[in-house]
Amino acid sequence: MQIYLDHSATTKPRPEAILAAQAVFVEQWGNPSSLHDWGQRSATVLETARIQVAGLVNASNPEAIVFTSGGTEANNLAIMGVARRYSTPQHMIISSVEHSAINEPARLLEQWGWKVTKLPVNRYGRVNPLDLQASLQPNTVLVSIIYGQSEVGTLQPIEKLAAITREHGALFHTDAVQVAGRLPVDVHQLGIDLLSLSAHKLYGIQGAGALYIREGITLIPLFGGGGQEANLRSGTQALPAIAALGVAAELAAAEMQTEVFRLITLRDRLFDLMADYPCLETTGDRIYRLPHHVSFILSDRFATRAKDITGKTIVRQLNQAGIGISAGSACHSGKLNPSPVLTAMGYSSSAAKRGIRLTLGKDTTEADIDWTAMVLKQVICRLMPPLVCCS
Question: How far apart are CA 301 and CA 174, in angstroms?
Fold first, then answer.
């Protein structure tokens, strides 16, 4: 029996997305920039996908969607595309729990002389809008706050944060890679200027993503070339992956209401089944949380007994039982350093090495949850003294 519970890392492409990609490979393989029939058939596929992705985030104009190679490129285009508008260093604000695809371009800007403020978060990983208000400066030109945190599942008050930013006159970007396709997103209601999403987080194919850019905003492209994607992302588009993204986005929007409820039910069932194990402490906000996301650490209350146990230890143990989870963020799972997200939330450096993440998907069943809970309890009992942690 194998159970995949690492859907925040990537999702299995859905059959409809694979069929869309196959159709491009076989029948619509032309260059979308070409004027002949082969090119125009491909251009129709490209623009159909743009409409489908725009529908997922309720963008009124499909031209607001720029296709990229994924969420990382979309984030970089948003941040560096704004920054390169200025001839002198300015000020930007991010949170202390951002993905590396935000942290790294922000660090580069600091090397160029920019000032970057990292907003603190509470014990649950949530930003206080008052901290944003207090951090705004006359030369603040961009605020970028992650929508749903991939490691601990916490959702940020994006609408409030965007309103504060807009009143100040700065631009607001959100990394919505973990949210788009999993929760309803309305860019107009949220009041955001820029939003990043990724295909392989919503059952599309790896290699495609998108950046929503509100009408009237000018970005400077990251590199030059043929001027595709409204001169913002040169290079022939990865049409098979983009076609798959469009289909996956359309289906995610259609299934949203029932799937969100189903995932929340399964998520809360797993939390409840593990509630009698005091050595496992829930991380992230239980109320403002991604619907598919469960995360724990081995608590500091048992630090002397857990000192040689890391999140990777538990991942390996569950993998031997046929269950796939991750140790915190997948992008950091190869490192033994403490999770910067967990340390920003106030956890000790030792506890921040003991985080695990279980993320559910459209194929996850109640039986999967029950079996996983049983196996996880057995693993914890093997790793920890039974008199401490086992019921």
Answer: 35
Does 331 qualify as catalytic in the annotation? yes
3-state SS, 52-65, equals HHHHHCCCCCHHHE
pLDDT of 281 above 60: yes
Residue 106 has pLDDT above 70, yes or no: yes
- pLDDT score recorded for residue 333: 47
Confidence of residue 384 (pLDDT cuts 50, 70, 90): confident
Comparing 111-115, 266-270, 327-331, the range with the smallest average pLDDT is 327-331
Domains with residue ranges and CATH for the chain: 3-9+256-389 (3.90.1150.10), 15-252 (3.40.640.10)
Q: Specify the 3-state DSSP secondary structure of 81.
A: helix
> At 215, which amino acid appears?
E
DSSP H or E run through 197: strand 194-198
**By the 8 A CB rule, do 213 and 82 touch?**
no
The position carrying tokens 């086992």 is 390
Residues 252, 8, 356: CA angle, nearest 5 degrees: 150
Phi first, then psi, for residue 63 (nearest 5°) are: -65, -10
Q: Which of 279, 331, 381, 390 is catalytic?
A: 331
**Is the whole-model pTM more than 0.85?**
yes
In 3-state terms, what secondary structure has residue 301? helix
Q: Are 158 and 144 in contact (CB under 8 A)?
A: no
Task: State phi, psi for 358 to the nearest 5 degrees.
Answer: -120, 115
